[in-house]
Amino acid sequence: MRCTIAVIGATRGTGLEAARQLIAAGRPVAAVVRSIEKARGLFGDKATLVYGDVTRPETLAQAIDPDWAGIVFTVDITGGIAGRGMFASREKIRAVMYGGLVNTVEACKQRGFKGRLVLLSTIGLTEPSTAMAILNRVKPGLRDHSLDKGEYLKKSGLDWTIVRAGILNDKPGGAHALTITAQDWPLQMRYQIARADLARVMLACVTHPAVGRRELSVFWGEAGHDSDAELAAKLAALAG
Ligand SMILES: NC(=O)c1ccc[n+]([C@@H]2O[C@H](COP(=O)([O-])OP(=O)(O)OC[C@H]3O[C@@H](n4cnc5c(N)ncnc54)[C@H](OP(=O)(O)O)[C@@H]3O)[C@@H](O)[C@H]2O)c1
Known about the structure:
Layout: E1 5-8, H1 13-24, E2 29-33, H2 36-43, E3 48-51, H3 57-63, E4 70-73, H4 90-97, H5 99-111, E5 116-122, H6 130-138, H7 142-154, E6 159-165, E7 167-169, E8 176-181, E9 192-194, H8 195-207, E10 214-223, H9 228-237
Helix pairs in contact: 1-8, 4-7
Bound molecules: NADP nicotinamide-adenine-dinucleotide phosphate.
């Protein structure tokens, strides 16, 4: 039975949360990373560590295992100001944000991967906002790169889910019910989510029958907590 979930982008942020949640639940996880040493420091022997740099297609051809149940893809450019690629060149950002997804999709096709690829994206790509306009300046082309990676995945022939997240923070998860909708929302501070909560949603999307070939938006709602059954029901409602 296919049960291992791969996380690409596992050494930081949302991907790190996803890998940690899988490990905590005793579920098998493969972390596709560009530094095995860094990943070993994070996961020890609790994850299968696979070398892969999404800007180098030849490494992905080796890395992708067709028997994985799914892939959670949370890669973003790192380094530079604030460690998040701010003010890097448009080309450098595109090579990771868009090119990295393209290379991963092509490697999945080449290797015969049949699971679902759950892609992290952002709200506000189709709903104008001041925050997106500023972000698109400081991280040149972010809007196009994000839209283009989504379109590429949709046309890939793979099974996919695109998760558009609100503004990310590193607060503890589990303190808010989640708003999950099919529509896009403007990028505004009132639409926030903790990376831990986002990781939980992305993992649920790997196997949930209602979210194959769908895009969804997610951010915090009221204080509270969704049980696993409530989260599953919110995902199921997207198909209705
Ligand atoms: N920031 C926000 O408010 C916000 C809001 C909505 C959506 N988003 C979306 O969220 C995503 C970023 O999530 P995040 O902030 O949680 O992630 P993050 O902390 O920036 O982590 C990015 C991960 O990608 C990995 N990575 C970078 N280049 C790579 C490469 N060439 N090959 C393989 N792995 C590579 C990094 O590995 P290393 O450790 O090796 O660098 C790291 O593990 C983006 O898609 C962004 O558009 C962000």
